[in-house]
TrEMBL record:
SUPFAM superfamilies referenced in this protein's UniProt entry, alphabetically: (Trans)glycosidases
Family of the protein in this entry: Belongs to the glycosyl hydrolase 1 family.
Catalytic residues, chain numbering: 156, 335
GO biological process per UniProt: cellulose catabolic process
Source organism phylogeny: Bacteria, Bacillati, Actinomycetota, Actinomycetes, Pseudonocardiales
Name used for this protein in its record: Beta-glucosidase
Reaction(s) this enzyme catalyzes, per UniProt: Hydrolysis of terminal, non-reducing beta-D-glucosyl residues with release of beta-D-glucose
Leading EC class: hydrolase
Binding site for substrate: 14, 111, 155, 276, 371, 378-379
Keyword Calcium: no
GO CC terms: cytosol
Top-level taxon in the UniProt lineage: Bacteria
Organism, as annotated: Lentzea fradiae
């Protein structure tokens, strides 16, 4: 697309609700515990039923792009077999409404909601899931490729591997540490298989959305710890997609077969950066099986989640990507946002977004997607953290635009 993309982002599991509607099957997140206050996403923002209202909010906001995800269990309730027509119909209507409103649909195919039946067969630990993902991609592309502007096969694979399989903070809740690394390769392979399918269906633009964090050593003696963390968090996913090779430190730990890297390394039309905060590392203490330990960053203001507010970190991320990969395609900031208490007069969020948007534009980003349009179910934190430009009363489902909504609207208009 030409021109700067002013966008907002959401994900299916976090906003749709309607677990039992339209033939949807269960996902790994339906079953995951513990979640803050025993919250669940069975209703969430009820976007499945209120999507027209949410498109109207985006039209009022003035964005020209909306990044959302498709729930794999809505399309294939067990992760296999023919498409569930009701699920495809839902997204078909949403895409039509976006196009009619002049808002470019930016579709993420996988935002962490693995069909539960596939996880019970091994999930991302098994190689076969990449083939299942290609099948699912074909079903979606066959229906939507003629209207979707941009495609993102896999959102933040680092978080799936690290939080879902290595330390168990996210679904499916496994604590495998380094034995989780095969999931990284299978996620990358699924990306590559999906790119092939999307190209075959005439997709307009295909990219990715990786979570990136500057890895800061706590002291000059902790550089090795910081580099080790960065290899796993940042480069384990970017390097094979952009250069066709894995970082040397982890390459021998991955179940790579002949031809895999050719599948993973294909030309991309854009590269998506999801950025929230930097990470500080030190050498591990005795008994720690990992080659690093996280250290608090306490010299900056913090969001409601306790994350340090460092806009310069976004510039650092984009600069490091370009330095490591000189042929980097156009960069979009596909997620950027903050949680703060639920006041409608959200001065802190306005300041956060203003500073990060300026950092993104100064770094030459081609677009900026605020996370998030709506308050939503925030994974293991339940409803305790609010990221939305729009406040959601979860009891009544009333949507109230915050001051940050009106601020963003003015910025988009150039006022």
């Amino acid at each position: 697309m030409s021109g700067f993309l002013w966008g907002v982002s959401t994900s299916a599991f976090q906003i749709e609700g309607a677990f039992d509607a339209g033939g949807r099957g269960p996902s790994v997140w339906d079953e995951f515990t513990p979640v803050h206050d025993n919250d669940n996403a069975s209703v969430a923002c009820d976007h499945y039923h209120r999507w027209r209202e949410d498109v109207a909010l985006m039209t009022r906001l003035g964005v020209n792009a909306y990044r959302f995800s498709i729930a794999w269990p809505r399309i294939q309730p067990t992760g296999k077999g023919p498409a569930n027509t009701e699920g495809l119909d839902f997204y078909d209507r949403l895409v039509d409404a976006l196009v009619e409103a002049g808002i470019a649909p930016v579709v993420t195919l996988y935002h962490w909601d693995t069909p539960l039946a596939l996880e019970e067969e091994g999930g991302w630990l098994g190689r076969d899931i990449a083939d299942r993902f290609a099948d699912y991609t074909a079903l979606v592309a066959d229906r939507l490729a003629d209207r979707v502007e941009m495609w993102i096969p896999v959102n933040e694979p680092a978080m799936v591997t690290l939080q879902g399989y290595a330390i168990g903070e996210h679904a499916p809740g496994k604590t495998l540490l380094f034995d989780a690394l095969p999931t990284a390769h299978h996620l990358n392979l699924a990306h590559g298989r999906a790119v092939e399918v999307l190209r075959g269906h005439g997709a307009r633009a295909v990219g990715t959305a990786n979570n990136h964090t500057p890895a800061w050593p706590a002291t000059p003696g902790d550089v090795a710890a910081a580099e080790s963390y960065s290899e796993i968090h940042n480069w384990l996913y970017a390097d094979p997609l952009l250069s066709g090779r894995y970082p040397d430190a982890v390459a021998d730990l991955l179940p790579v077969q002949d031809g895999d890297l050719r599948v993973i390394h294909q030309p991309l039309d854009f590269y998506g950066v999801n950025y929230y905060n930097p990470t500080r590392l030190k050498a591990p203490s005795e008994g720690n099986p990992l080659p690093f330990e996280l250290v608090e960053i306490d010299e900056f203001p913090r969001t409601g989640f306790g994350w340090p507010v460092v806009p310069a970190g976004l510039t650092e991320v984009i600069s490091s990507l370009r330095e490591r990969h000189p042929d980097l395609p156009p960069v979009y900031v596909t997620e950027s946002g903050c949680s703060f208490p639920d006041e409608v007069h959200d001065t802190d969020r306005v300041a956060y977004l203003d500073e990060h948007l300026k950092a993104a534009r100064a770094a030459g980003a081609a677009g900026y997607f605020v996370w998030s349009l709506l308050d939503n179910f925030e994974w293991e934190a339940g409803y305790s953290q609010r990221f939305g430009l729009v406040h959601v009363d979860y009891e009544t489902q009333v949507r109230t635009p915050r001051d940050s909504f009106h601020w963003y609207r003015k910025v988009i208009r150039g006022e």
